[in-house]
Amino acid sequence: MHKTVLVLVETVDDYLPLLEQAGYRLIRAPSPQLRAEAIQRHAHEIEAVLTRGPLGLTGGEIDALPKLQIICVIGAGYEQVDLAAAAARGITVTNGAGANADAVADHTLALLLALLRDIPRADASTRRGEWNRVISPSVSGKRLGILGLGAVGLAIARRAHLGFAMPVSYHSRTPRQDVPYTWYDSPLHLADAVDILVVATPGGANTRHLVDTQVLEALGAEGYLVNIARASVVDTQALVTALQHGRLAGAALDVFDDEPAVPDALKALGNTVLTPHVAGQSPEAARDTVALVLRNLQAFFAGEAVLTPVRQ
Q: Is 277 a catalytic residue?
């Protein structure tokens, strides 16, 4: 008997046939309307849900799916999945930790280089027929701080340290014993010690506004912020104020509080680089993400331990 999977994501369509070829029946519902209709119409068929952090799965939706056994989240974040409701039903939750780490790390370095070297404005002015040879800061040797040293943070650290000779420091809840980087006990102390702060920690209530006015002030007028994690980790209004008043040199952002809306204040600034939440997207990352979902589903329905469980 085929297992039925409700697919809420819209970014890995090209690789969903991997699941179908393995015998899974997919119900695709990538919009709010289709999602509601699918849950109502197929409530007694759905045994698994494929979602991503910002899309999540609510307690009400979990309650409406009596046969639901496993929720697979693509990407590392799972902030909008009601873990308490899942735990109350004994539903397993997995995430995509590490599957798109290389893509996110690549994009992070691209943002960092574009920001410090002022690439977008140089490109735009050259296309206008101008020849503005603005002197921009070097990247090599800058002190890099990473907030969160999971799979993505580690991939960023390796690229920065080995490729650009950047001293790397980080903050996490506890220091890691398997890395050569310097640990700081708070985001504030980390920001005070670095030139560039990269946000690579999960979203959710526990990390909300970890980067606040004080952290931005510690980073300073010559400091830069790069966020490829979740917008909620950074106080957006505090960031805009710091950028507007020269208390921060610049910011590169791939995530925003109310996607796809981007604050006009951020778009109006000349010291920002903005991309539409694409850091983790590449054909390779999509393939690896779906492959990890498949391995988790196969293990679960075979009665084996899943590969990337979310601790509830």
A: yes
How far apart (Å, rounded) are the C-alpha atoms in residues 50 and 57? 9
Same structural domain, 132 and 70:
no
| Catalytic annotation present for 230 | yes
Q: Which of 130, 222, 259, 284 is catalytic?
A: 259
Q: Which of 25, 117, 277, 287 is catalytic?
A: 277
Tell whether 238 is covered by a domain: yes
CA nearest to 211, candidates 193, 194, 188, 183: 188
**Span 161-205, pLDDT tens digits:** 999 999 999 999 999 999 999 999 999 999 999 999 999 998 888
Q: 155 and 59 share a domain?
A: no
220 backbone φψ class: left, alpha, beta (φ>0; ψ -120 to 50): left
Q: Is position 309 within any domain?
A: no
Q: Is 79 a catalytic residue?
A: no
Q: What domain range includes position 40?
A: 4-99+283-301
Q: pTM (2 decimals)?
A: 0.92
